[in-house]
Specification:
This protein has 214 residues and is mainly beta. It has 2 helices and 13 strands; from the N terminus they run E-E-E-E-H-E-E-E-E-E-E-H-E-E-E.
Amino acid sequence: MNMENINNEVHLAGYVDAEPIFSHEVYGEKFLIFPLRVKRLSDISDIINITVSERLVKISPIQKDDFIKVSGQFRSYNNYSQTGNKLVLTVFALDLSHVEDEDGENPNYIYLNGFVCKKPVYRVTPFGREITDILIAVNRAYNKSDYMPCIAWGRNARFSSDLEVGTNIKIWGRIQSREYQKKLSEDETITKTAFEISISKMEVEENLENADIV
């Protein structure tokens, strides 16, 4: 993958958590989707959705429990339904390959160069951790943009809490998944999965200030 002038770069390594299934078709090219189980340093794993062209899978077939590397871009699209508009996030695979096993490299890496498109929200958890939620728009070809929910921690949270809408920032981090409960009625709840980018380093393009996580 050509990395020149890249503003959206993802590298993952993990286990295929389920067989790929059909997602959609564009101009006669079929695309599949499957979950990739990416381990953290702890025993927890992130389950990240991967979208890949059927043509790429034909070259390098994958099955459940295969350990693979994926390189591509993190993308978003709006899924409209009767219940409302939902932002769907997926890694669009530009390349994938089989590897024998974990080789010690960072299994979850993302770099984005985008623009703050919503006023950041700063908060402190009951355990005293500082967090700032940031929504970043990353430009794509054909006048499209991808919208990425990001989380900054500690010193990065304080640093980013006052960023203005339109600020150009670069971020480095990891994609993570988390489950939460959504209440449908007094007697019914469902478990849903949210995806976000946990920021480990960030840089403001205007003045080249930077802050590393503590």
